[in-house]
Amino acid sequence: VQLQASGGGLVQAGGSLRLSCAASGRTFSSNAMAWFRQPPGKEREFVATINWSGISTLYAESVKGRFTISRVNAKNTMYLQMNSLKPEDTADYYCAARGTGGIYSRVSGYSYWGQGTLVTVSS
Questions:
Q1: d(Cα 95, Cα 23) in Å, to the nearest integer?
Q2: Mean pLDDT of all residues in 17-24
Q3: Cα–chain-centroid distance for residue 38?
Q4: Are strands 33-38 and 17-24 parallel, antiparallel or unpaired?
Q5: With contact defined as beta carbons under 8 Å apart, do 7 and 22 qualify?
Q6: Residue 72 has pLDDT above 80, yes or no
Q7: Cα-based angle 90, 23, 56 (whole degrees, multiple of 5)
C-alpha cells in the first residue's frame, strides 16, 4: 500500500500549484483522505479533508477559499489545487488516508501516509 504525493515546487506569491496523491496497492474509494503540511521547524498541521465520495470536504481556516481538495476514485487519486499562494504556505505537504469514509482533521485519525512533497512560496 503506497500513497505517492507529487506536484510540489517553487512558486511566487500569488501563484498556483496542483498537488496529486496517487494510491497503489489497494483502492481507497471507500476511505476519507486528507492533506496535511509541515512548515519548517513546526508540527504537522491539517490542510483539507475529503470524504470517500468527494461530496463532503473540510478546510483549515488558513486555506479556505484558496485551496480546493478533490478526488477521482476511478483513478485512485486525490488532488489539492492551491491558488493565491502565500509565503506562509511553504511546507512539506503530505497526503493521507484513513480506515473509514468520513472526514477528519487530526493526524491521529489517518493510518496511511505518503511521503512529503515540498512547496516553497517566495515573496
A1: 10
A2: 96
A3: 11
A4: unpaired
A5: no
A6: yes
A7: 70
Cβ–Cβ under 8 Å, residues 41 and 51: no
Which region holds residue 54: left if phi is over 0, alpha if psi is between -120 and 50, else beta?
left
Structure-block grid coordinates of residue 54: 468527494
User: How far is the C-alpha of 69 from the C-alpha of 29, rounded, in Å?
Assistant: 15
Beta strands in 51-111 (DSSP E): 57-59, 67-72, 77-82, 91-97
Alpha-carbon gap, residue 110 to 41, rounded angstroms: 22
Report the C-alpha dihedral over residues 100, 58, 105, 88, rounded to 10 degrees. 140
What's the CA gap between 25 and 36, in Å, rounded? 22
Chain segment 41-71, per-residue pLDDT in tens: 999 999 999 999 999 999 999 999 999 999 9
C-alpha cell recorded at residue 5: 504525493
